[in-house]
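Objective 1.3, modelling of assemblies. Example input:
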Amino acid sequence: MKITRIPIAILCAALLSAPAFAQSVNERVHVLQKRDYSVKNKFEIGIFGGLTVGDVFTQQFAHTLTLDYHINEALAVEALWMSSKLPFANGTRVAGSGQAEYKDDKNFRWGETYTGAYHQVKSDAQLSPSNADLVMLSNYIGVAVQFSPIYGKWSLFNWGLGHADIYLTAGAGVASTDYRKANGNWVDTGTYFVGSFGGGFRIFLARWLALRLDLRDYTFAARVETPPQGSGGGTVETKIRNSLYLMFGVCLLFGGEAPVEIWSPY
Amino acid sequence: MKTAILSASLVLLSSVALAQGPAVSITQAVESYNGGNFQRAALLFYEVKQTDGNAANRAQAEYYLGQSLFRLGMYQSALAYFNAAFVAGPAHPYYLKGAEGLIKVAEALRDDTLIPSQINKYYNAQEFAGMDPMALSRINFYVGLLLYRQEKYGESMAFLGAVDENSPVFAKALFLQGVIHIRLGVRAAAARDEAGSQREYEQAIALFERIIDLSGRQKQKALAAIARYDNIVRIWQLCTLNLARAYYGKGDYQKAVQFYERIPRFSQDWADALFEVGWAHFMRKDFGKALGALHTLHSPHFGEMFVPESWMLKATIYFHVCLYEEAEENLKFFDETYAKMIPVLRELTEKGLPNEAFSSLLLKDKLDEADPMSRVPAMVRRYILENPRVENFRHFLRSLDAEGRAIAEASEWKGSRLAEELAGIVTVQRNLLEKTAGGFVKANLISVAQTIQGFSNHAKLIALEITPAKRELVKAGVSIKAEERGRLAPRPRVVDETYNYWPFRGEYWEDELGYYEYTVRQACLKTEK
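Predicted structure (tokens):
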């Protein structure tokens, strides 16, 4: 299925050639060709960079390393590690009870920020979002299954052809989570089971090289404990959080079926 | 090395020449030649040739005049003096050198007709035995090529078979022998000599395989072969195509298809391969693939290519699968596109135009409206221009024009008899070339008209067959309309998941060319064949 087409020039050519080709009702013309970018039995190593999108109060940057094995053209399994900060690097622990709190942690992160909405809530409404709403993934490790039933090609003004596949992915893993307090310290909110689902597309530049754009949602339970203050007891907030990551990656493909190339002296 | 030999041999000769006191001594000419001043050398050799009383000096000057001109890139002029040495016969001390010079000029001018013909005329096997084996191999190859063109296959094979294995033209000679075996196979088949035909095809196959074996079928060995043999890459591709043809001739259509499919897509021979594989599929009754191959051939990629037979094949396939309307449509297309060219071509070739009048089709990039060649249909013109010999003609013409300018601009020769004589040689040759090129065009136009006429007759036969076939349908009480007679065959099976299936809906995607396949309605009645 040619999913995307910008075939202006080709269409012109087709129209020009109309006298030579007029398909009758008694025949059908088909194209049966070896897939140019077969992924069957190939391994794919990818490195991604991106950021969270769609979160009301927070935004953070992350990178991901992936290793995929394509069982066939449509199905792949993937192991991935996504990170927003250096693992096991936490800065200086601040003394206190409850969940561990660290200062000078910022240097270990790829970048994070509160959104305009956060500041607006703080300044205009004199309110503070719930800490559970600020919890972010810091490191995620998991596996996923990728299903790519759609393989397409596109043409841009006849300059050349591109090939791509579109995939859906679902997986699970564990992630460490934390949130930033108003004073800049980070609170480790623990390690949780995380489910993920998403989709993306893979543009093949060569049989061994592809670009990927990946949109993936990570769902996890954010649990924030507030230690007892004064005479009041501590509180525990739990929320189901969704972090949606938009990632752009470069992938190397290797292994699999070698292209059938009969040795030719041409 | 040649110049060193020349110097040594001239030490004695020059003293004799000087003793006789010509206006210019051969020593002076030799000094200029050895010093790389070929203009001056040519002028001096010319003077010696004209004025020296010593016959040996004159003979030597004649040959080295040719050499000097050759070094100046004035091939046509050089040819005149090499030829003089050669036609003088073995009595001329530079007879064999003259023959070698002729071959060098033939290669420089890409002349595979006139010069080989001259060599063949004066070929002397006994004398040529003393020639450098590599030079002799080239001569044998060109003479073999000439005789092949004259359809003297036996004689041609004798010359081609004498080409040395170490010669750069060895692969070409083997290839030509293979092609001759194919021709002989066709000839034997036409004479209903089945065993003879098979034998010829098998010999052809063995020769083509042997040429491909020169590559060792490995990259490293192939690179060595590329360095060793002339034009071997092209020969390999032609071998693949001709292997397919030989297997087709043998009736092994499956193997023919395999070789046709090895011709790289978008390569020079792809169009031929597509058309011919269409026939191979047809012979295997794989009509869907035959139509698919023709679909690529008729795609915009090939533009309006001159392929009249492909429309005949298409009509024949439709007739075989009882799609009579489609067959008629293709015959109509053939009629409107090709048959209508016949009167124009006949008029041009039969109204007594001199050969020179046809040359503009080859030699000019733009044709004036007044030029009769402007009336040649564009498709036919392109077809003629695609002939590899056309580029040879054009190369020859460019070379002559450049030579004419170089002679006029040679400072040393201003006002000399040499310049006058060379200008005359070039002008005569240019006129002859125009005549030859014109003759080539005329012969092609006649051949094209005959080809179209032949297929036009074939088209009439198909049309005649369609009428009773339709009558049979009416008699059987079934509809003439194919869509009411049978079901469309299902789409082709996808071999495995590494293959893609795309439906074709009128858009030509470049990457899909060559991968089309038709399915047609099963419209034949059970009793129909």
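The longest strand of chain B covers residues 499-503.
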